[in-house]
Amino acid sequence: MRARLDPFIVALLATALLGTFLPAGGTALDVLTIVSRVVLGLLFFLYGARLSTSETVAGLRHWRLHAVVLVITFVAFPLLGLGAHALDGHGLNAGLADGILFLTLVPTTVQSCVVITRVARGNEAGTVV
Q: What is the rounded average pLDDT of the residues 86-115?
């Protein structure tokens, strides 16, 4: 069996390469900033709009799982980041300590949400990776 390339992953890599070699600046950057915000809003809206009410209610029944994910994301990770930041000057340089703290304070990105949805088989109609 031959594995198919996921079009989303290909588009993501192509966008990263394009941005690396042809970065936007000036007016183009301003326009792309607005476009990216609109597209992200549409992405979240369309993912939510395609859920049926019964699926939403079924998901809410797993409140303990949601609570664990929220605690890990907004309590455990920031505490780990603060712990790493405390190592500033003790084996960890200031820039790296700040970077780790920043990464632990920022919630998950759209990409990781899409990956988690796919792993959970939330997009059964999509391409299998």
A: 74
